[in-house]
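Researcher: I'm comparing several assemblies side by side, and this is the next one on my list. It has 230 residues spread over two chains. Same procedure as the others: predict the full complex and return the structure.
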Amino acid sequence: DAGVIQSPRHEVTEMGQEVTLRCKPISGHNSLFWYRQTMMRGLELLIYFNNNVPIDDSGMPEDRFSAKMPNASFSTLKIQPSEPRDSAVYFCASSLAHGSTGELFFGEGSRLTVL
Amino acid sequence: TQLLEQSPQFLSIQEGENLTVYCNSSSVFSSLQWYRQEPGEGPVLLVTVVTGGEVKKLKRLTFQFGDARKDSSLHITAAQPGDTGLYLCAGSTNAGGTSYGKLTFGQGTILTVHP
């Protein structure tokens, strides 16, 4: 069975450029999460969707970050313009939203480096 | 904001030794999960505990949820090099009575087991 699929795995870009990260959740999962992981701050929840609707985006750092989920099988996280402090590994995860004990299935992450 | 503090941050031990990782919070969680993450991959769920005082065993790993559901521990017996990785605890709360919960992750414990 295919797990959560993220692309690209690695992205190196220059400050000011637009970055788009993509995620395909596990088929049948109705919750999708975007996390950012750094050594300093650990895993931070940026935004999560339930049934394609954004439920909580309080973790999105600032207006430069935006996320969409146009359908149940695809989501994007966009950073425009990117800054060096955005360098991190960005994870997408999906789950079945049955109560609060649902297991999160993570993708392999997208490592972003902003020069 | 619920915070989860993990200790120790780093643990370097020899094969065959026992170890315990702690996860503490001032908040009450409806459930708590432990994940393990290897380099270049996303976290993978090890266990979910939901009842105060609950103890779960997974081969050489023993997980305990505190009676007050504010803390948890992970104990590994006779550690092996294959146990090396980042161990993350994550607490979940029911967000306003809805059917899904946000996971708050601890900073993680980096475990290295030397042969």
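Model: For your comparison table: The longest strand of chain B covers residues 85-94.
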